Structure formats: structure tokens, C-alpha cells
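Q: How would the C-alpha cells look for this protein?
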Amino acid sequence: MKAKGWLSEEVYRILLKNSPIPTADFILVRKGESEMREFLLTNRTENPYKGRWFVTGGRIFKDERMHVAVRRIMFRELGVSGGEIQFIGCQDVLNPPKLGVYWHSIWHLHIVIVDYDVMFRLNSENAAVKWFTSINPRWPTPVKKALAMAGFK
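A: Here is the predicted structure in C-alpha cell form.
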């Protein structure tokens, strides 16, 4: 039996094909040693965007409040449970195929301000995490747009 909120692959494929997916996405932000703001990206192990630096996020479950979704996803993917959540806006993202289907997600984007020495426990969706201070022009377009919305250049 699936955990609450999880869909079978068959149902999820139908959803991807026929409807936009609302997601809770976030960028962890900290002040670096030089007092410059840094942001965290994850290196994905799954498609789409496998092997690329990407924003952390996931699907919002039915009846789940946005801040609860951010905390759930942050703990599941990164092992992080603290931080101050700030909503910064929405972004339409047209994604490459997943389960053989091109799909559309609507990111509800947040920044989460964390302590400098925050510790991580990554799940299987992420190979690594890294702190950055500026946007790399070779990163996927949705990542660059999200980081610009968060005030990074």
C-alpha cells in the first residue's frame, strides 16, 4: 500500500499527461563566511535533470498546506528540519519527459533561510549538494529563473 499522498505509477502518468502538477519548491539560503548570501542546489540522480544541479522540490499532496509540503520535502530529500520559510512566487515549468510523458509543473517557490552549519542527510534522489553564490548560465532554465526570483545573479 502506498503512503498517504503517493500515487501509483499508472495514475501518476495519467496525471502528468492531463494536468499541471502543483509543486512546493525551495532554495536553501545562508550567509557564507564572507557574509555573501549562498544558495544550495542538489545534483539529481533521477530524470528529468539527472546529473544536473537543480532546485529541491516535489508534488503537493491533497489537503497539504504549502509550508507543510516544504518541510516534508526538505526533510525527505535533504534531512533538514529547520529554517525560516519565505514564499517568493510561482513559476510555470515545462519539463522534459518523465515516465514517457512531457509534463507541466507549477512551482510554488520559496526560500528557506538556514544556519551556516546546517547538516544534510540526502535521500536517493540526490547525489550531492553544493553551495553557490551566483547563477551558472549552463544550468537548466527553470533553475536560473528560480534563482533570479530569489534575488541571485
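The chain has a mean pLDDT of 91.

Helices lie at 9-18, 66-78, 141-149.

Upvote if useful.
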